[in-house]
Amino acid sequence: MPLSIRPLRPVRRRLGVLAFAALAGAASAQVPGAPPQGVLSLAASASVEVTKDVLVLTFAATRDGADANAVQSELKRALDAALAEARRVAQPPQVEVSTGNFTLYPRYAPKGGIAGWSGRAELVVQGRDMAAISALAGRITTMTVAGVGHRLSREAQQRVEADVTAQAIARFRSLAGELAKQFGYDGYVVREVSVATGGDADHPVPMLRAGMAAAAEAAPLPVEPGKGLVTANVSGSVQMK
Q1: What is the pLDDT of residue 199?
Q2: Is residue 58 part of a domain?
Q3: CA–CA separation, 70 vs 55, rounded Å?
Q4: Residue 81 is assigned to a structural domain of this protein
Q5: How many domains does the chain contain in total?
Q6: Which residue segment(s) compose the domain that 142 sits in?
Q7: pTM value surpassing 0.70
Q8: CA-to-CA distance for 191 and 173, rounded, in angstroms?
Q9: Residues 130, 55: contact at Cβ < 8 Å?
Q10: Where does the chain show beta strands of DSSP type E?
Q11: 40 has pLDDT over 60
Q12: Mean pLDDT of 47-71
């Protein structure tokens, strides 16, 4: 009886189908599925009070007149005289002197047209020698004190940054552990986290009106620095386990 041989095409076709299915299954496993479960986002912060150690005084002069060049010249003379007085005690970083805004603008009449010119010049004195800086308020006579403020020096902020950052991180970890337990988990692992630190920003605020300048002449300006905050913020997410 003759030997019959069956064709192998169906087997090959079947193997090809299985191979394609296996590849398709592997590809589908790599496709991102649903969002991960048990991810918790949270934030914590800590703050430390530090005495503000930098005094910032802003001196200003204002002038009005019919001629723009004349107003500008008067402002320049007032600024030059104040600068000369301030430079006598300048000693960075204890006392630093810099010019501020210098503006000149027209004044318009009710019926239109320029009726005159007004201008303002500023001088900024700042540093850690508060006694020397406050004494300038009585010696600078061509400008008046327009603003006073206190801020933290970078050195003062850096002295406590490490401690306040450690406190914020400890609070973040403690909070993550407590919340994970409340959600029924045993613990957590950190997914991502960011840490940021900063200090109080304190800009000079109005202190004296121009009409009070005469009373302030030859007398140091009384100042009280107060407290500033150095803050650390920790935020991120954890995977609860």
Answers
A1: 81
A2: yes
A3: 33
A4: yes
A5: 1
A6: 54-151+201-225
A7: no
A8: 12
A9: yes
A10: 39-51, 54-65, 96-108, 114-127, 144-151, 188-199, 227-240
A11: yes
A12: 95
